[in-house]
Write a structure and sequence with these properties.
The structure is a homodimer of 698-residue chains.
Chain A (H helix, E strand, L loop, with lengths): L3 H4 L3 E5 L8 H11 L5 E5 L5 E2 L2 E2 L13 E4 L3 H13 L4 E4 L10 H13 L3 E3 L5 E4 L4 E4 L7 E8 L2 H14 L3 E6 L8 H10 L5 E6 L5 H12 L7 E5 L13 H5 L2 H12 L2 E3 L2 H12 L8 E6 L2 H13 L3 E2 L4 H10 L10 E2 L6 H12 L6 E6 L7 H14 L4 E5 L6 H9 L8 H16 L15 H14 L3 E2 L1 H10 L7 E4 L2 H11 L3 E6 L12 E5 L4 H15 L7 E6 L7 E10 L3 E8 L4 H4 L2 E5 L4 H9 L4 H4 L10 H17 L3 E11 L4 E3 L2 E5 L2
Parallel strand pairs in A: 1-2, 1-5, 5-6, 6-7, 10-11, 10-12, 12-13, 13-14, 15-16, 15-17, 15-18, 18-19
Antiparallel strand pairs in A: 3-4, 8-9, 8-11, 20-30, 21-24, 22-23, 22-24, 25-26, 25-28, 26-27, 28-29, 28-30
Helix pairs in contact in A: 3-4, 6-7, 7-9, 10-16, 11-16, 12-13, 13-14, 14-15, 19-20, 22-24
Chain lengths: 698, 698
């Protein structure tokens, strides 16, 4: 796919160019001509001869020269006819603005579009979109009325209407854009493909995205990592709507129930290293700070203010967002002492008092910027009687030229400060309305700068028996079986070398006695029935059964359950070695397949409190060892793993290995829809899977 | 105290009025004269004869007429001299702007000020403050250069410098103020007193506060409840700095360790019914929505938009903040069908499409406002090609006059929308930059409207033996004892009729045998030593000891502990009846005294996970039964109390009663610094305190 033909075409044909003013087919031509695009423009309209001074063509084949990009605005019904000509003309890039495809129920039509693009390696944006804007080459290939200023931001949006508001904000906030992409239905070119392209685009410094849904977590994560962790790291800021939607489907598995819709996306963005914002206001704050700042080399902030209250409020936000207040060098304090009044606060946050003139601001900020313990600055101004607002802004603008450290500013107020704020914005200094916003966005920038971990390798175990699981699933497939209860799930886990206790299945009291003798230790009894999910609730679990009592207890259990759940089909009883694991804690592992995104792995605290505390964390398969550890660290129960008061640490490595085997199983078998290992007993010495269940998709 | 003399004085003397332009003593006179205050103004300055056209007086006693308010701007050292004259002149209200008191280490001087005010019932604001502004009567009794517009907000600030920024924002955002109070050191008049006054002030509709610290939680809560729950409920919006400060002191008690500094304030504001915001931006959003809206009668919101993306983002924020999307009446849908294009979304959020003219907005919003399932409206506009921005604003202004339902607006964009936004603001319609802000502030308004619970009575038990605890504490006082280990703590709990198991103290193996026989059931053994806090860690706890084994086990325990902690002083062993409570869960109760605020009660899940999950909640004593239940409902473990899968509900009422007894104990004995009841075993049948410790202040 040649995305460059879309974003940097030398020639553009508009198929469906219209002479009717106000129509989309007219707007697109007008925008291309009016904004000053320098390439060739070929309006295609069989009924017209001329449009905005350009010759019209009856169809695209009539154009003699090469066409890099075709913009299609004809009705959906004739798009495929037009596409045939596009193929004939060998046009590498296409934007389909026309609606009436999948979003309107016409899935088949969209599939045809996908097929023809794949066959001929055509890069296609849309259908059902606003178009594309590249302010760098003054190309407004959309029907948005205005073009944003040019600059370093590439914006991808799944909402066309939001684009127009963003463009208007951009002008107000002096934000410049490199690409403006309304992705539409994403039939061919999706976010992952765009991230790949933008990673290499020299004009793009920051990527912002408005997302309603994504597909294929793995692909997105890989593309995001490439752009975020490259030589020239480019942050990806995401706003995702639909975060409060209830989980798509009720699920019988713990993992399914705990992995709601937004949890998937939250995990996806974290794993990808993308910066997720909750509101559109926060997105703009971040954009202003990210586009106009170097990356800080540490998280130590100096706050400079002429008002105590806002200084403390900003300190709160700094610390709440995992930054720290810089401990100033002794020399810095001495220098501050020299220039500041006695009662000024020379400890960070530095309060240079309400009567501070611009000169005092200037001297103080210069000293702070020179302190090697200071990684970034937040400068706050409140308009008091003797405050020199404009002059202070000028001092900040001068400082910005001398230092590479990020400077974020908040001049608090309305009419008194507006002129100075405008000057700061023109000078590419992020000036936010309130200092807490400044702290929050600076924190995001710092986190991005410091947390770009290296790409690490995914788990891979050579000792797994993939063939065995393939056989089990093939057999299940043959008989239409999708659910694997414990005794069958254990076979799958055993093939992937999960640590398991000894176990056998007894179908009679006599057999129970025989098996018990063979195992030789105390036993756990668990009923086997396709109709019983929560075995404990119906008395289907007995622990610590003495081997000599096995037959007797077998009969007791069967009798009890037949009384409690008369309709349940009983296969037998699973007899399992009682595992002695003093100090052991029950964890839960799981897989939940998101049909859009992929296989989500889960780990968390199991046992009776699993549903009370929901202390679980997630990652899309495949994961690395490094990420597995991250998942554990997100748990409150991590304290239990590392040893709480009076308790020894548990075998974290065994738990990580289990997560790794789970990752490999999920990656090898994407047909696994749900999998729970519950409990996974983790003790000081190791982990052991005591129960499991698996559901596959046919 | 006569606060009215401060806020509505008929005559004001400025003691320390200065002829030096730019000085505080000059600014105050200039502000009073310049802003148009209509009462009498008496500058007091022995060296001047005239200031801004007013006659100067050598001292306040030279003024013949009555003086309602004295503003003092003389140096701290002479303030007390001036105060003597103020007393002689019988001035009921004083503002001390001068600094140099407690904040500068001059505690004694401030105490003198407090004493003289108390003695003569003088209402005093400050010292160390910016002054007071009452825009309603055009009184700028401060050295702030500008006065905010008049309106319904009363603003209390512990930061003078923040005031100037707030005034400037106020002009920009069309926010009007009724009182503007820089509280300074709060030597005499504090927030609680001001809330009492503002509750009765006819001009105050909303109170906003910037707080750095408070004292006496009980007094603040009582005053806040009065203003919030009165006939004309007035919301109190609070921004508190210092929320990320580490807890003031390391503490040996669980309750102390879990009740950090900000937890106290978080609890205080919740209990008071105040609305706490995290950032100054949020405060302004709330102020705009609260001052210009009626209270909604329900939480069902209709969202009207011309762009899908922002509609979904707003829906997210609506739901995340516990509002719901209104289910429109069938008739409403029919009416919308009549006026909207086919492909518009007539389900809430209602998307009337990008080409919506003002007329379509108007028709749709009128229909929505008329739906009885709609309690409030959020109207979103993005500036698209054919959007009629100003006309749509006019339509909203017209609607506002016809409906009592709150309308919150977001016109997204910059220059294109700014004029319309100004028109909306002038018409007192809250227009916020981003729709998520609109949703958040509307949610706060709705929560305030719906959650004003009735004042309920505090717990009071007639069966407690207060005298006995008085005696215990008096005896401890006499011998300088502050710490009460378990066996002494149990005496205190028993006096307040907490449910306790049978227990005795044995100091020898023989005695252990004797006591065990008396109790007759299995026993818990717990070592008694002033040097051992965590008994389990040193083997100082044995459970399920058979009565016949008592003497033997006694010796074993003593031997073990002497080996483990050779230096510990051993008093004996506490023998306690083993409580049989199947399905019982361990909770923890506690008291932690905050020296500023008062006695904080805590309840939470106990046992091994207490420090892992920190599942605890708080309330300042005294509490009501209603509030005790609220505290429980805030726990994740509330699910355990009400019964999780396969488990019966526990005795919630017994737990609530224990909380009540704890509240009474804390109220009766404010000298209790720390108290832990851990565990409090709660079963299906009741609660039982199994261990405790108490620390008092001498």
């Amino acid at each position: 796919m040649n995305l460059n033909s879309i974003f940097n075409p030398k020639s553009i044909a508009i198929i469906g160019a219209s002479t009717q003013v106000g129509s989309v087919g007219n707007d697109v031509v007008k925008n291309l001509v009016g904004e000053g695009y320098q390439g060739k423009i070929y309006p295609v309209n069989p009924k017209a001869t001329e449009l905005y001074g350009l010759k019209c063509y009856a169809d695209i084949l009539k154009i003699k020269n090469k066409v890099d990009l075709a913009i299609i605005v004809v009705p959906a019904a004739v798009v495929m006819t037009v596409m045939d000509q596009v193929v004939q003309k060998k046009v590498p890039g296409v934007i389909v603005i026309s609606a009436g495809f999948k979003e309107a129920g016409n899935v088949e039509l969209e599939n045809q579009l996908i097929k023809i693009c794949k066959k001929h390696s055509i890069a296609l944006i849309g259908p059902n979109c606003l178009g594309v804007i590249n302010p760098i080459i003054k190309m407004n290939a959309s029907f948005a009325t205005t073009m944003p200023p040019s600059g370093g931001i590439s914006f991808l949006s799944q909402s066309g209407a939001l684009c127009t508001a963003v463009i208007d904000y951009a002008h107000k906030l002096d934000l410049g854009f490199s690409k403006f992409i309304s992705v539409g239905n994403k039939a061919v070119v999706d976010e992952a493909a765009l991230l790949e392209y933008l990673a290499a685009d020299p004009h793009t410094k920051v990527v912002a995205m408005y997302v309603e849904q994504l597909r294929d977590a793995g692909k997105f994560i890989a593309a995001a990592k490439k752009i975020i962790r490259g030589e020239n790291p480019k942050p990806v800021i995401v706003i995702k709507s639909g975060r409060t939607q209830a989980g798509a489907s009720a699920s019988a598995s713990h993992t399914g129930a705990l992995a709601g819709n937004d949890v998937s996306y939250q995990t996806l963005f974290k794993q990808a290293g993308a910066i997720r914002v909750q509101t559109s206001g926060e997105m703009f704050d971040h954009l202003r700070v990210f586009t106009h700042s170097n990356l800080p080399t540490g998280n130590r902030v100096a706050i400079l203010t002429n008002a105590g209250g806002p200084g403390v409020l900003t300190t709160d936000e700094v610390i709440a967002n995992c930054l720290t207040l810089a401990q100033l060098e002794p020399e810095t304090r001495k220098k501050l002492d020299d220039i500041l009044p006695t009662c000024a606060n020379k400890h960070n946050p530095i309060d240079i008092l309400g009567d501070a003139p611009a000169q005092r601001y200037q001297a103080a900020m210069q000293i702070l910027a020179g302190d090697k313990n200071v990684d970034s600055l937040i400068i706050i101004l409140t308009p008091q009687t003797s405050t020199q607002i404009k002059e202070t802004a000028q001092a900040i603008i001068a400082l910005k030229k001398q230092t590479k450290k990020p400077i974020v500013v908040s001049f608090m107020g309305g009419d008194l400060v507006i002129e100075a704020v405008r000057a700061l914005r023109r000078a590419k200094i992020p000036a936010l309305a309130f200092p807490e916003q400044a702290a929050r966005s600076l924190a995001a920038l710092t986190k991005f700068s410091l947390n770009r971990s290296k790409v690490s390798r995914y788990f891979s175990f050579a000792d797994v028996d993939k063939k065995k699981v393939e056989k089990i699933f093939a057999a299940a497939h043959a008989r239409g079986q999708t659910f694997f209860p414990e005794y069958e799930a254990l076979e799958i886990l055993s093939a992937y070398k999960f640590p398991l206790p000894k176990y056998y299945i007894a179908t009679s009291a006599a057999e129970a006695d025989k098996v018990a003798k063979k195992i030789g230790t105390h036993l756990a009894f668990k009923i086997i029935s396709p109709d019983i999910v929560h075995k404990t609730d119906v008395g289907g679990v007995m622990l610590n059964v003495e081997p000599a009592q096995a037959g007797k207890k077998y009969n007791e259990m069967i009798k009890r359950i037949k009384k409690q759940v008369p309709t349940a089909r009983l296969v037998g009883v699973l007899l399992m070695e009682m595992v002695k694991a003093p100090g052991g804690t029950e964890f839960i592992l799981g897989i939940n397949k998101d049909s859009n995104l992929g296989s989500l792995l889960m780990v968390g605290l199991g046992g009776t409190y699993v549903e009370v505390f929901k202390d679980v964390s997630f990652g899309f398969a495949p994961i690395s060892e490094q990420y597995a550890l991250k998942m554990l660290k997100r748990l409150k129960a991590y304290k239990i793993l590392t040893g709480t008061r009076g308790r020894n640490p548990l075998a974290v490595n065994s738990l990580i290995e289990c997560l790794g085997r789970l990752s490999q199983l999920a990656t090898d078998f994407p047909e696994i829809k749900e999998l729970d290992i519950n409990p996974l007993l983790v003790s000081e010495k190791g982990a052991m899977a005591l129960d499991g269940r698996v559901v596959i998709e046919l």
